[in-house]
Amino acid sequence: MNITKCIFLTILMCAYYLAQIKCDVTEIPEQDCTDLAKDVPLLVFSTLGGGLTAVDPITSEIRWNIEDDPAIRVPTHSESTVSPYLPDPRDGSLYQLGDMGSLKKLPYTIPQLVASAPCRSSDGILYSGKKKDTWFLIDPKTGKREKVVGFGADSKDSIGWATSRAVYLGRTQYTVLMYDSRTKDKNAKPWNVTFFDYSSHSMAPEVSNEYEFLHFSGSSSGLTVTLDRESGTFLWQKDFSSPVVAVFLLGPDGLLSVPFSTVSDGALKSIIEYARDGQQNSIKLFESLYVGEHVHGLYALPTLIDENTKTISSEPMMKLLDGPTANDNPNLVYLNTLMETTNDKNKNVVVLGHYQMPKTKEEFKLSIAPPKTASIDNANVHELIATNMKNENKAFEVNINRKGSIGSIIPPPKESIQSNPTVPGLELQSPKEFISNVYRKSQAWLNDQESKILKLLLIILFGLVIAMFWYMKFVMHEIRSQSQSGSQTSVSGGKKNGVYDELIDLGDGVSQVGKITFNSLEVLGKGCEGTFVFKGRFEERNVAVKRLLPECFTLADREVTLLRESDAHENVVRYFCTERDRQFRYIAVELCSATVQDFTEGKVSSEIKNSITMIDVLQQATNGVLHLHSLKIVHRDIKPQNILLSFPDANRKIRVMISDFGLCKKLNLGKNSFSRRSGITGTEGWIAPEMLKGQRTVWKFCQ
Q: How far apart are CA 117 and CA 370, in angstroms?
């Protein structure tokens, strides 16, 4: 009985599974291809002429097509005028058209200008922006679309066709109005550029690297080809009748941006030819900028070209010295040469074609007005400029019908390789680069100022500040050098500071220290603070040796410094040497016969008294003081005791000399007097009365 039940249950289970299999087999033919591929997201191509086209990525079937506004719109004032700005329909970048068709890339895009408006650039262009957002509801199966919300949209109570698979798409219209504030043309009109962009999610880098397709689109036509990323084999091609500016994947959450490349028409034909024939080949593609024209104006589209594509250079051809022009590339055409060959002298001419990638206009800066308006982040701007500069001169390699990566970057030409790598976020500048950068920024800021008088005043003020800075630096250097020379010890024989000689007693009051020998029993004079002057010898000549205590070392150093500077004059006492021992400092100067005080009191010999008159004494003493003043040295202690008379020479001539420089002081550069903070200096009884009275200005009249 149990065996019978088991057999019966086994038969029932087999019948059930056979029924399930039959049901599945009979249902398969009734399914539609669309239902089989309903989980595969559609590829949506956005074109320059306007409109969205949905394509099945597997079958290449066009599901639907929606007409829309063009990606860019550049109106012209008249048929004879050309807009000086060329927009990029892919991301809204702007290229400025200069004289003779030269191109420069602005470091800001149209969306960034709208976000910063109202603003003014460093070249005097005023920018005004407007942004308009619109939401659409679209059926991914049929392509039916209806405006839901947005400025200027009709209000809808309900949308009857909306289903659970309907997707919301957002689109933004950016309009920038530009006006040249420096134009001299009273009838000048502003220029405006409109850029349309669909809101989409960015594909993560790791997802982008695993994307299974590779899309190429023509720069001037709508021809688009899709290759397999891994093998490079041809999958399908479509002609959308207008250049493709964006490719998306349409999913439940909206649009997801897909990487694609815009190539020249010639390079695209080569890629299709090699891919269809199954030939294994590698095509090197180089960056360029295609300037084209469509119904709504001119546009500039970054494009990859092959080696056989004619390229236009807006830079003038480099001419060799006494030789032919340097043009080794037969496919490179120079714009100035091309313009010279045409008979049209109108500067308002644009040559359509592939240009070398223009450089970013680095000096272009924006000033936001009013200041509280939201501005562009400087870090993002610098990153944008750096990115634009780093992308120049790159080459790409496309492997067709060969396993491996597609679109890999190969090394750029040798002239574009930079040998000095930089650490991200860290810029090391040399002093020359720093000064150049400051000068460039200052010049750009001055160009922003419209008033010529203000510019002139700022330049003068800047020059005065620099002159004052260098003057103060020079004065401080002079003060520091004087201070150092006054605090250092000057020794003979090239001895360094801190080196001293032992005092040697030679007997009978004669002592020797270094090169100086003196007799302590022959005192020529006494001074303050225990200063004595002895008769001595230095290198076989008679000298006066001045011995000073440590309390006077600072004054002694200053005296020696000033003597060295001024003793070349015959009316200044001559300095010879300085020595030191453990206790004293010794200064050797020229030995004299008497002082002026001795001369006036008659305490000199008849020989000296008959060799010079009082008028000669005053005249020579005045010459000595005049020499000191010419060196910016003020003696501050002129008295009869400090004016010395020399011994008669072979011609019986006597020289009058200024001595004792202990209170001397040198004027700083640019000064003509001292302050009174240091007090009144000099010897009591010989200080000028106007100094004691505190008079600031003294007038003396002499007959």
A: 9
Determine the 3-state secondary structure of 446 from DSSP.
helix
pLDDT for residue 616 is more than 90: yes
8 is written with which tokens? 């019966």
Q: Is pLDDT of 436 > 90?
A: no
Condensed to tens digits (0 to 9), the pLDDT of residues 519-563 reads: 989 988 887 777 889 999 998 899 999 998 877 777 777 788 888
pLDDT tens-place string over residues 139-165: 888 888 888 888 765 545 556 666 777
The alpha carbon of residue 525 and the mean position of all alpha carbons in its chain are separated, in whole angstroms, by 69
Neighbours of 236 (CB within 10 A): 16
- Per DSSP, helices labelled H in 182-303 are 205-209, 265-277
Q: What HEC string does 571-590 produce?
A: CECCEEEEEECCCCEEEEEE
Q: Catalytic pick from 448, 637, 649, 660? A: 637
Contacts of residues 546-555 at CB distance under 8 Å and 24 or more positions apart, as own/partner, are 546/586, 546/587, 546/588, 546/589, 547/518, 547/584, 547/585, 547/586, 548/584, 548/585, 548/586, 548/587, 549/583, 549/584, 550/583, 550/585, 552/585, 552/662, 553/489, 553/585, 554/486, 554/487, 555/662, 555/663
Token pair for 669: 């550069």
Catalytic annotation on 501?
Answer: no
Better-scored residue on pLDDT, 155 or 88: 88
Cα 26 to Cα 23, 35, 247, 433: the distances in Å are 5, 16, 39, 79
